[in-house]
Amino acid sequence: MAQEIRTVEQRTPQTAETAQRSAPRPMFLPPADIYETRDNIVVLTEMPGVALDGVDITLERRVLTIRGRSATNDHAGYQRVYNEYADGDYERAFTLSENIDRDRIEATLRDGVLHLVLPKAETAKARKIEIKSG
Amino acid sequence: MTRDDVTINLQEDVLTLEGARRPTQEQDVNWQRRERAYGTFSRAVQLPFRVDPDKVQARFNNGILEIELERLEADRPKKIEIRAA
């Protein structure tokens, strides 16, 4: 028998401390997974409703900003009975811990999940230092 | 998650969604941040009326699952004529 997993609502709207948006749509903080392999940093964010043309990724110095604009769902002829899910845009910024090789960044968007592979810059990879007996 | 990871069941007026999401299979991973949910999930929704299981349409676009259900013809309210006694 499958059990219902209780998860905390992950789609938290931005608080009023951040600048007010001019558009009347809510802005969500997409949940993100970040993990590091030997050569890359991989970022996975969930932005349901965002198509390829609605994603904007910028990397300035070491700050990575991900923005997603979701397509509005217009259900003509239907009446909204229950609303747990709201149409909104996504934005999240991260300061990366490593220096990234910008030219080799790979980003794929599939089913609303953004998969970002950020290869570490050559200098960032740990280099084994030889100790010579002197 | 792909199409095969989710099952949708319909019984009378209850719609059940079940599925599972597995984390990455990569080796030698050092997690910095883990906010997304993994594991199995299940949700049952009670619909306001019985629906026709042959006329269900399920769409999966950009991560949003949209299920369109049509009310069962036999479930529609029928007007009852009052005959003069």
Question: Topology of this protein?
Answer:
The complex is a heterodimer of chains A (134) and B (85).
Chain A (H helix, E strand, L loop, with lengths): L11 E2 L13 E3 L2 E5 L3 E7 L3 E11 L2 E8 L18 E7 L10 E5 L2 E7 L15
Parallel strand pairs in A: 2-7
Antiparallel strand pairs in A: 1-2, 3-4, 4-9, 5-6, 6-7, 8-9
Chain B lengths: L5 E6 L2 E8 L8 E5 L4 E8 L10 E5 L2 E5 L17
Antiparallel strand pairs in B: 1-2, 2-4, 5-6
Question: How would you sum up this structure, described in words?
Answer:
The complex is a heterodimer of chains A (134) and B (85). Chain A has 134 residues and is an all-beta fold. Chain A has strands at residues 12-13, 27-29, 32-36, 40-46, 50-60, 63-70, 89-95, 106-110, 113-119. Chain A has one domain (26-123): Immunoglobulin-like. Chain A is built from no helices and 9 strands. With 85 residues, chain B is an all-beta fold. Chain B has strands spanning 6-11, 14-21, 30-34, 39-46, 57-61, 64-68. The radius of gyration of chain B is 20 Å and the shape is rod-shaped. The model of chain B has no long low-confidence stretch (mean pLDDT 83). At the A-B interface, β3 and β4 of A face β3 and β4 of B.
Sum up the structure in keywords.
heterodimer; A: 134 residues; mainly beta; Immunoglobulin-like; 5-stranded mixed β-sheet; 4-stranded antiparallel β-sheet; disordered N terminus; B: 85 residues; 3-stranded antiparallel β-sheet; two-stranded antiparallel sheet; 6 strands; 0% helix; 44% strand; rod-shaped
The total number of structural domains of chain A is 1
Integer average pLDDT of chain A: 77
How many strands in all of chain B? 6
Q: Which blocks of ≥5 consecutive residues of chain A have pLDDT under 50?
A: 1-10
By CATH, the architecture of chain A is named: Sandwich
SS class of chain B: mainly beta
Kindly report the CATH topology of chain A: Immunoglobulin-like
Strand content of chain B: 35-45%
How much helicity do the residues of chain A have? under 10%
Order of helices and strands of chain A: EEEEEEEEE
The assigned CATH architecture of the domain at 3-22 and 39-75 in chain B is Sandwich
The residue fraction in helices of chain B comes out at under 10%
Strands in their spatial order, largest beta sheet of chain B:
1-2-4
Largest interface: A-B, 31 and 25 residues
CATH class type of the domain at 3-22 and 39-75 in chain B: Mainly Beta
Mass-distribution shape of chain A = elongated
Tell how many strands the DSSP assignment of chain A holds. Answer: 9
With helices defined by DSSP (H or I, 4 residues minimum), what is the helix count of chain B? 0
If strands are numbered along the chain, what order do they take across the biggest sheet of chain A?
Answer: 1-2-7-6-5
